[in-house]
């Protein structure tokens, strides 16, 4: 059974009101929620997630408006997908490493008959 922290639902109106009425508390809660998300991730990804969050925070701090920050973050995410060394390039590289015969006709396979190791002559090849 999930604990109460997993059952919480994001309430945009509450967060919006908090950001408008008490920006310092909003930032404290935002940082706490982000930290909880990073802690729930596998340990091996923590440093990468912290670096990414640092970049996102830097965008928020340097871009003049929330909409501008959103646009810049959107561009950054697309760079990670379609840019040099991005997800798309990695996936295409993996596909290129698969032998051509497997890519062109993946339903064809060579079946190799074998006799079980403990067979006492009862098995038919």
Determine the oligomeric state from the structure.
single chain
C-alpha termini separation: 50 Å
| SSE series | HHHHHHH
Report the total helices.
7
Query: What is the number of E strands?
Result: 0
Q: Name the structural class.
A: mainly alpha
Quickly count the domains: 1
Radius of gyration: 26 Å
Low-confidence spans: pLDDT under 50, at least 5 residues?
Answer: none
Helix content: 55-70%
Q: What fraction of the residues are assigned to beta strands by DSSP?
A: under 5%
Shape: elongated
Please give the largest β-sheet: none
Mean pLDDT: 84
Sum this structure up briefly.
By secondary structure, the protein is an all-alpha fold.
What does this structure look like?
It is a single chain. With 125 residues, this protein is mainly α. It has one domain (4-104). 65% of the residues lie in helices and 0% in strands. It has helices spanning 4-7, 12-21, 23-40, 46-62, 66-82, 87-96, 100-104. It is elongated. It starts with a helix and ends in a 21-residue tail after the last helix. The model has no long low-confidence stretch (mean pLDDT 84).
